[in-house]
């Protein structure tokens, strides 16, 4: 509480403008930041606007800023003019956030795996190339949803994606069968 | 220059003849996917494409629909793809990045022109200010 009071209200806005400027100079979009850091769009925009009112709390907010700044390659010392020295609490929060994001999600924690049955169902209708790319995409999104909304939501999201994907994939398979039927008909007309 | 111009003209005509004066027709979702690829620049892969389409159109989009459309566009040579890096968060599976080809841009332009021509005929009737509706 006391560390939060040390903030000059104008500083978060100044910090946000600074981070936004660096991001734009590097040619990155907000989406790039979200995709790479796993911070949600709401968090990134709140930091850039200097409006922390909708975010979880002081020490976590500072950790989000730290993650964003690290990703942009900004040295910790450069943040000091805007950012009053990190307290011990902040470092703890930072460790919690980074551990959750980096180790549990980004390094492929075996406990955060998409549902096997749904994955297998989709597997049946995919070409060999798609099995790598599409299932990889779905697993990436599954982890994103898991970190933001929990495993239950992630599971629901995954099943929804699988079932809504089946219609176009089955349609494509039927189309391929039609080609085979056409070739058989051609063969019949030529030889009989 | 004159000779070069003639050669180019001959090649164009012969290409047109070869293609049977084929016009480019894109489906609505194909058009959306092509535009999303352009907007994402070098980062157009499955997840990014699906999310952008979902955000911009405001309707649920399945990854299967995106991939079947991309496959169709690749067969038509409107897009080209390359295998990307495999990461742990993707279960060690690689990304596939897509980029638009010249034929894809031509198809988009053609679709846009057709739409503009159609709208030019009916736009005033739909204008609520004119009170025609």
Describe the structure.
The complex is a heterodimer of chains A (192) and B (133). Chain A is an all-alpha fold. Chain A is built from ten helices and no strands. Chain A has helices spanning 2-5, 10-25, 30-37, 41-49, 58-72, 76-79, 88-106, 116-123, 128-149, 151-191. Chain A starts with a helix and ends with a helix. The relative contact order of chain A is 0.08. The longest helix of chain B has 25 residues, at 102-126. In chain B, strands 1-2 form a two-stranded antiparallel ribbon. Chain B has 133 residues and is mostly helical. Chain B has a single domain (23-130), classed as Orthogonal Bundle (Arc Repressor Mutant, subunit A), CATH 1.10.10.10. Chain B is elongated and about 55 Å long. In chain B, 60% of the residues lie in helices and 11% in strands. Chains A and B meet through helix 3, helix 9 and helix 10 of A and helix 3, helix 4 and strand 2 of B.
* Count of separate DSSP helical elements of chain A: 10
What is the overall number of helices of chain B? 5
Characterize the overall form of chain A: elongated
Under the CATH scheme, the architecture of chain B is Orthogonal Bundle
Q: Please state the average pLDDT score of chain B.
A: 80
Low-pLDDT segments of chain B: 1-21
The succession of helices and strands of chain B, N to C, reads: HHHHEEH
Give the uncertain stretches of chain A in residue-range form.
1-10, 84-108
Strand fraction of chain A: under 5%
User: In terms of quaternary structure, what is this?
Assistant: heterodimer
Number of strands of chain A: 0
The total beta strand count of chain B reads: 2
Instruction: Count the domains of chain B.
Output: 1
Largest sheet of chain A: none
Q: Give me the Rg of chain B, rounded.
A: 19 Å
Radius of gyration of chain A: 24 Å
Helix fraction of chain B by DSSP (H/I, runs of at least 4) = 55-70%
Query: What's the end-to-end separation of chain A, in Å?
Result: 89 Å
- Report the helical percentage of chain A: over 70%
């Amino acid at each position: 509480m006391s560390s939060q009071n040390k903030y000059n209200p104008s500083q978060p806005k100044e910090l946000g403008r600074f981070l936004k400027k660096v991001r734009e100079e590097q040619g990155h979009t907000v989406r790039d930041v979200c995709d790479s850091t796993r911070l949600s769009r709401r968090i990134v925009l709140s930091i850039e606007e200097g409006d922390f009112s909708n975010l979880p709390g002081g020490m976590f907010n500072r950790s989000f800023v730290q993650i964003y700044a690290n990703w942009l390659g900004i040295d910790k010392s450069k943040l000091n003019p805007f950012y009053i020295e990190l307290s011990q609490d902040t470092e703890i929060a930072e460790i919690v956030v980074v551990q959750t994001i980096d180790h549990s999600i980004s390094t492929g924690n075996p406990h955060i795996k998409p549902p096997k049955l749904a994955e297998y169902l989709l597997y049946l209708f995919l070409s060999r190339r798609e099995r790598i790319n599409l299932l990889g995409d779905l697993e990436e999104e599954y982890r994103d949803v898991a970190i933001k909304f929990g495993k239950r939501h992630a599971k629901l999201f995954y099943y929804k994606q699988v079932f809504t994907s089946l219609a176009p994939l089955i349609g494509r398979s039927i189309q391929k069968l039609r080609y085979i039927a056409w070739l058989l008909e051609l063969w019949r007309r030529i030889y009989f | 220059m004159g000779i070069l111009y003639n050669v180019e003209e001959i090649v164009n005509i012969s290409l047109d003849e070869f293609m049977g004066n084929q016009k480019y027709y894109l489906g609505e979702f194909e058009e959306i996917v092509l535009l999303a690829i352009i907007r994402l620049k070098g980062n157009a892969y499955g997840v990014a494409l699906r999310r952008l389409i979902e955000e911009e159109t405001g309707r649920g989009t399945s990854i299967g629909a995106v991939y079947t459309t991309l496959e169709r566009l690749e067969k038509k040579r409107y897009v080209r793809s390359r295998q990307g890096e495999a990461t742990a968060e993707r279960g060690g599976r690689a990304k596939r990045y897509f980029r638009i080809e010249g034929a894809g841009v031509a198809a988009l332009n053609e679709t846009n022109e057709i739409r503009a021509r159609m709208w030019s005929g009916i736009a005033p009737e739909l204008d609520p200010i004119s009170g025609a509706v």
